[in-house]
Amino acid sequence: MPRVKTGSVRRQGHKKIFKLAKGFRMTRNRLYKVANEAVLHAGQYAYNGRKERKQQMRVTWISRINAALASITDAPKYSRFIKALSDKKISLNRKIMASLATDLPETFKALVSFTTEK
């Protein structure tokens, strides 16, 4: 049985890492060990960033809804508005309500008046 060296397989693995590390600065795109660490960290940062983007969008939606409620006279505060929605069994998510508040303010006002009436 002849001896098999790792040459081509190792080269393919290194090329894969270097391709992912393209655009990194200094030795992070030239030295395999450093590039591999940089790619691993970059992947972790990207994963965390995807989660954080969802959190930031929720914060944005809440602030848009709150601003729209503030512009309407006799409208409740955000927390009471959300409670009124749940009491009336209206299941609209914050993304939809924020788009209503910005794009269709009359519809949003109708929703607010419906939730605040006794």
Written overview of the protein:
The chain has 118 residues and is mainly α. It is built from five helices and no strands. It has one domain (9-116): Ribosomal protein L20, C-terminal domain (c-terminal domain of poly(a) binding protein), CATH 1.10.1900.20. The mean pLDDT is 91. It is rod-shaped and about 85 Å long.
Keywords:
rod-shaped, 118 residues, single chain, mainly alpha, c-terminal domain of poly(a) binding protein, 0% strand
> Structural class, please?
mainly alpha
Please report the number of helical segments: 5
* Cα radius of gyration in angstroms: 26 Å
The count of DSSP E runs of length 2 or more, i.e. the number of strands, is: 0
Integer tally of domains: 1
CATH class: Mainly Alpha
CATH topology: c-terminal domain of poly(a) binding protein
| Mean pLDDT over the full residue set | 91
Straight-line distance between termini: 87 Å
- List the uncertain runs: none
> Any guess at the CATH architecture?
Orthogonal Bundle
Shape designation: rod-shaped
The named CATH superfamily: Ribosomal protein L20, C-terminal domain
Multimeric state: single chain
**What's the helical proportion of residues?**
over 70%
Major sheet, described briefly? none
* Strand/helix succession: HHHHH
Beta strand %: under 5%
